[in-house]
Specification:
This protein is an alpha+beta fold. It folds into two domains: about 190 residues, Penicillin-binding protein 2a (Domain 2); about 350 residues, 3-Layer(aba) Sandwich (Beta-lactamase), CATH 3.40.710.10. Helices cover about 35% and strands about 20% of the residues. The protein is built from 22 helices and 23 strands. The strands form eight sheets. It has a five-stranded antiparallel beta sheet with strand order 12-11-23-22-21, sandwiched between helices. The chain has a four-stranded mixed beta sheet with strand order 2-10-18-19, with no helix packed on it. A hairpin with a 2-residue loop joins strand 18 and strand 19. Helix 11 packs antiparallel against helix 22 and helix 14 packs across helix 17. It starts with about 35 loop residues before the first helix and ends with a helix.
Length: about 625
Amino acid sequence: MKDDPFKIKEGLVRDSKLKGFSRTRNSGDYLDFWSKATGSLGRFLTDSKVNLLFLVLILFLSILWSRSFYLQVIKGNDFLNIAEGNRIREEVIKSNRGLVYDRFGNLLLKNVSHFFLYLDQKNLPEEPEEQEELFKKIKDILEIDQETLQERLKHKENKILLYENIPYQKAIKLILLAEDNLALEVNFEPRRQYFSDLGLSHVLGYLGSVTENDLDNDKNYRYTDRIGKTGLELIYEDTLRGIDGIREIEVDALNRAKNIIAWHEPLDGHDLVLTIDAAAQAKLYEVMNKNAEAFDKTKMAAVVLDPKDGGVLSMVSLPDFDNNIFTSALDQEQYNNIITDSRNPLLNRVISGTYPFGSVFKPVVAAAALEEKIIDANFTVNSTGGVQIGNNFFPDWRPQGHGRTDIKWALADSVNTFFYTVGGGNNQWLQEGLGINKIMDYSRLFGLGQATGIDLNSEAFGFLPSKEWKEEALGERWYLGDTYNLSIGQGYLLGTPLQAAMIMSYFATGQVFKPHFIKETKINDQVEVFKPEVLLDNLISDQNFKTIRAGLRETVLEGTAQSLQSVKVAVAGKTGTAQFNKNKTPHSWFAAFAPYDDPQIVILVLVEEGGDRGLAVTVARQFLEWYFDR
């Protein structure tokens, strides 16, 4: 064939290797209108289609890359945390709150651990029937009604404290139930227990549930925490409060614990050592309760101070309350009994109750008269039973009068006529007295009308009247009779028992220290000692100071508190009877310090509506006898 191109080749022809050749095709016999569709002629993809396909592919890959970048780079940490959160469960290890001791190291309260049942609403069964079955089992174990359970389920937070202080046998059943129900958690946690025989409910205060405001103010609190609401628990919350620990547990897909992978130890709160003498506190509480029951006078207030540094040795307000009811889920019935009690047991009468002082105010008036040289130690009046001013008669408490009276006897036998005279003047013995302005100036000098700054909440200021106040508030001018009443601690003047104790504290030592409860704080192994703060000093001259002290000592030797002679040491003091309502029995007051030559304590007792039979003196005497006999 190489030599003759026109010769037809015989035998095998390898046409299959020819481009575009098809063995089954009869080329030339018919017209092939579908050649493009078969792909045998021309190209299936044009350049434009290839470009479009390429752009679609690039777009698709870009979307995948962008999404991957978003998930892995931008949101990677968030999803990692979510994944870890699903893998790791955190459990809180409750810290112990700091303990509180008296000045001799005696415990005033303690922490006692109990079982607590929590409900995690995120892990509740989805089916209502399963939830109802779970709640029924809880009710049966705890023996509570449906209403109680539903009330506690109203909380909006995920983790709810369902029940606390659970008995051991019931706790075991709940622990077994919790093994098959991830929504339940049983913990063993500490709670406060207060000693009811000390009468410290108003001083120590109590703990309560965290509120929304608490959470807003401090993000470290949890809904299930208990924090100080009143008393020292409130004032020293930051000191007593511990730092909870965290236990990180690895869980499986069903949230069942596998391994503990991290453990952060809780840090207990710091301890407080108070100036309180626990034995003296218990005795004062006992004496007051016995007299309250014997004389049916249930509203009393008493405070015992160390005049050398202002430390509170004892403080009791009656009626008191059991602060243990606030340490667990609040019993509404018990709480209602407290808040509806007409005697107002939640009121700390020592610092929050305000009363007319009566004659315990007379040492302030005596000091003012001596300092202003209105009188001297030799000045006398003749008490014949009272003073007549126009149509008004201002009586002495002895109808027959007290006879010739100087300042010492006026204090010792509480002679009203003497103080009417030095306060407002009397044409018979003194033309011009101190007047309201001077009396109020010295009241402020002795700390009245202002808070003492004691480390308790809700301290009252008391009230100091003025001419301007009366004209504006009552629409009346100030009369001489108003000054007379003010001179004996009556009328519009109001103050707290603690303020009255501060007055007596000054005449004990010549100084007034800021009253306080903290002796020292224990932070880890270090002890921080409290430094006393002087509030009042050098108020009057040394000579006038001695004159008034002598009058206070005469009160026990010859005056209105002679029963105090039964105390082993020399006592000085001042009695008082304060009228506040003509239809009610007056209040009974007594303030004293002892020993006279080297004062160790100051005591103030108030008996609301105690009358003029010396009930406040009785309480003080029984306590002082015990105190200096022990």
